[in-house]
Amino acid sequence: SFTNLGDKGGPVEIQLLHVEPDPIKLGGKISLSYVIVVKTEIKACALDLVVEKKVMWSWWKVPCSKGLGSCSCSDLCRSDITCPDLNKWIGLAQESCPVEPGALKKQDLIVDVPSAPFGSGWMASGSYRVNLKLTNPLDSKVIANYLIEISLTT
């Protein structure tokens, strides 16, 4: 599930986000479908991705490791900056910036899910929430801010 934490009339709106299977199997594949509406031209876009795992009754931040977890990127549009695979997942490449107004759509995009390190699958399984926040690095205005909830299993 996903929730818009930002301005409902903001520059970017996720209208559809569907992931199968649920829960997501580590080391398997997912089918990802989405419709993201871009309402204004985006020339630069910073990413702040906070991933948290539910442990007992509280949420623990998952650190960034090898492009997975709570990672940040100062500008997804710059080719000289290494960022998480978000660009690949949503079908953007650095050379596609600026992002013009319109709809970004993918239907049944197959994505490989990394395996948990040997012997740690039981620790990786569980409930997660991901706060995906996009801002304009030129003026710090929020482009999009979403909370996405997922479950992982081995």
Overview of this protein structure:
- There is one protein chain.
- The strands form 2 sheets. Strands 1, 3, 5, 6, 7, 9 and 10 form a 7-stranded mixed sheet that branches. Strands 2-4-8 form a 3-stranded antiparallel sheet, with no helix packed on it.
- 6% of the residues lie in helices and 47% in strands.
- The longest helix has 5 residues, at 86-90.
- A hairpin with a 2-residue loop joins strand 5 (46-55) and strand 6.
- The model has no long low-confidence stretch (mean pLDDT 85).
- By secondary structure, the protein is mainly beta.
- The protein contains 2 helices and 10 strands; from the N terminus they run βββββββαβαββ.
- The protein has helices at residues 86-90, 121-124; strands at 2-4, 12-20, 24-25, 29-38, 46-55, 58-61, 72-73, 102-112, 126-135, 142-153.
Strand content: over 45%
Structural class: mainly beta
Biggest sheet architecture: 7 strands, mixed
Low-confidence stretches: none
Give the terminus-to-terminus CA distance.
20 Å
What is the global morphology? globular
Tell me roughly what share of residues is in helical segments: under 10%
Rg calculated over all Cα atoms: 16 Å
Element order, helices and strands? EEEEEEEHEHEE
Strand segment tally: 10
Query: Tally the helices: what do you get?
Result: 2
Average residue pLDDT = 85
